[in-house]
Amino acid sequence: MGYSVLIQKLINLSLFSKSILTLLILFSFSVLSAQSPYDTIKGKEAENFNVGYAGSQPFIVNDDGKWEGISVEIWDLLARENGVDYKVKSYNNVADALKDLNEGKLDAVVGPTSITSDRAELVEFSQPYFQSSLAILSRADDPSFLDRIAPLFTINLLYALFIFLFILSIVGTLLWLAERKASPEQFPHEPLKGIANGMWCAIVTMSTTGYGDIAPVTLMGRIVAGTWMVVSILFATTMVAGIASSLTLSGLGKNTISSAEEFKNKKIAVLNNSPSVDFVKEYDGKVVPVDNIDEAYKLLKGNSVQGVVYDRPQLEYFLKENEDKELTISVADYLKQGYGFAFPLHSDRVSGFNISLLKLKEDGVLRDITVNWLGKDKVAK
Known about the structure:
Elements: H1 2-34, H2 37-48, E1 50-53, E2 61-63, E3 66-68, H3 70-81, E4 87-90, H4 94-102, E5 108-110, H5 117-120, E6 123-125, E7 130-139, H6 145-149, H7 155-179, H8 191-206, H9 219-250, E8 267-271, H10 275-282, E9 286-290, H11 293-301, E10 307-311, H12 312-321, E11 327-329, E12 334-339, E13 342-344, H13 350-362, H14 365-374
Parallel strand pairs: 1-4, 1-5, 8-9, 8-10
Antiparallel strand pairs: 2-3, 6-13, 7-10, 7-11, 7-12
Helix pairs in contact: 7-8, 7-9
């Protein structure tokens, strides 16, 4: 009987041990399942997540090794929101950074990267976090003598003179036809001499000089002359007023490129491999590629180029930091486009970053960051 009890106790102890072992195994599984597989992957991705910083101030600012700027601040918020720890690599320009992104050397490009159709075929863009446009930076020089008289040699003025001579020949012909019989001494029968005298009569009539050497004597001739007097006054005053206003504007003391229509045959500095290259070519400007805004500024100050086409916020920030009263930024905006963060094609990160971007925009964080760098007057409401 004693042996039976002992055996039963051993069996019970074995069952208890198995129960304890089973509980321990279940507890271990529960602990492992509490740690999401995503956390493990995230930790691995975070360790190898490489980001390229490219662009100019105020979007990318390197202050003695400390990265700042509009793009940097927004990216850092997005990275923390999405649990991404990253390493930074600096690039001289966006084109080089996008090249490395395509080759798999980077996981994202951060900076003022314009979202264009050509680029969207090669990389995946986030939602735009900033709306930009191109503007023109040019010198405000005192006009030279040639600049002052240039309006007298425009193609429009030549067209006006051609039209005037054509009308004058018609009036001269009508006067000759009306007067050649009644006044052959003033309007000879020979067409060449008669029409020439008619044009001379029309000129002195228009100018109100009134030499009196030639004057119509017939009713028809006087009707033609009287009609010409009224028409010529309107024509002459309009043409003279146009020439006077052009000469006045050309001598006001400033010689700037205010619009893209003035690019023709002028050297314009543009950022290499940017949308501004095709923009300048479209308006027949001579493209001078540069790597950054500092290089473009030196060329402009050294009279090597007549203007600079660059993104408006960068130009405004540059002049804010480097005040130069000899330079001016055009009022006109061109090629409005958004800035976005670039990822490899089919990246699974874009969706999460887009959601976070929309939240930052809805909460007013994006606007606060841009206002802090550019000022309220430079940020669209």
